[in-house]
């Protein structure tokens, strides 16, 4: 029986390996955040955020776009961001209203469902500038919250900045969700 050579499989190219590394970093992030090791959690999160940028850049620059990457990359992004916000509720319950996290997670479920439906109809459903802005603002907000708990809990102005960023995150998350619904409208409304 011939063995499968993973090194020759396009699904295991460098961008996709970075995506899988980000999934492992998400686990590290969740574990250390759960036990309030904010510096390690922040490091894992920032490294995951860097790999998200890097895998997209390499995939486009080197022509290494794959179906696996198109599915896995947004999936892992949702795990990192949604998991981060969900876990942060227990640490920042006086800062993060749970309804905001519900809106963020619901938008991700909605867009993922629309993406799946559209692609099942043969309509490509790539990221938009609004989706990228949403990811940046969400990641920045999580980073700011982690920095606050790691080093700046005594600064009220940072807490106020977090509240502002949470509202901005919700607004951009909702707007980007609406943009995706409008973009997919023809595929959804077709017979």
TrEMBL record:
Places the protein is found: Membrane
Stretches that traverse the bilayer: 20-50, 135-156, 162-182
Record pathway: Phospholipid metabolism; phosphatidylglycerol biosynthesis; phosphatidylglycerol from CDP-diacylglycerol: step 1/2
Topology of the protein relative to the lipid bilayer: Multi-pass membrane protein
Key words of the record: Lipid biosynthesis, Lipid metabolism, Membrane, Phospholipid biosynthesis, Phospholipid metabolism, Transferase, Transmembrane, Transmembrane helix
GO BP terms: glycerophospholipid biosynthetic process
Domain of life: Bacteria
Top-rank EC class of the record's enzyme: transferase
One GO term describing the cellular component: membrane
Record-listed E.C. numbers: 2.7.8.5
InterPro entries xref list: CDP-alcohol_PTase-I, CDP-OH_P_trans, CDP-OH_PTrfase_TM_dom, CDP_ALCOHOL_P_TRANSF_CS, Phosphatidylglycerol_P_synth
Catalysis performed (reactions): a CDP-1,2-diacyl-sn-glycerol + sn-glycerol 3-phosphate = a 1,2-diacyl-sn-glycero-3-phospho-(1'-sn-glycero-3'-phosphate) + CMP + H(+)
Keyword Lipid metabolism among record annotations: yes
Name of the protein described by the UniProt record: CDP-diacylglycerol--glycerol-3-phosphate 3-phosphatidyltransferase
Provenance organism: Candidatus Brocadia sapporoensis
Lineage: Bacteria, Pseudomonadati, Planctomycetota, Candidatus Brocadiia, Candidatus Brocadiales
């Amino acid at each position: 029986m011939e063995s499968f050579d993973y090194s020759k499989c396009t699904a295991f190219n460098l961008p996709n390996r970075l995506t899988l590394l980000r999934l492992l970093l998400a686990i590290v992030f969740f574990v250390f955040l759960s036990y309030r090791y904010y510096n390690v959690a922040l490091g894992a999160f920032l490294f995951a955020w860097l790999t998200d940028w890097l895998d997209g850049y390499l995939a486009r620059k080197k022509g290494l776009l794959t179906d696996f990457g198109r599915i896995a990359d947004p999936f892992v992004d949702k795990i990192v961001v949604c998991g981060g916000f969900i876990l942060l509720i227990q640490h920042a319950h006086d800062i993060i209203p749970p309804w905001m996290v519900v809106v963020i997670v619901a938008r991700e479920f909605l867009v993922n469902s629309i993406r799946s439906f559209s692609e099942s109809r043969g309509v490509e459903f790539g990221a938009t500038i609004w989706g990228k802005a949403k990811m940046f603002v969400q990641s920045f907000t999580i980073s700011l919250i982690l920095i606050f708990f790691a080093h700046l809990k005594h600064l009220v102005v940072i807490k106020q900045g977090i509240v502002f960023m949470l509202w901005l995150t919700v607004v951009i998350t909702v707007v980007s969700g609406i943009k995706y619904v409008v973009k997919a409208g023809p595929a959804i409304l077709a017979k």
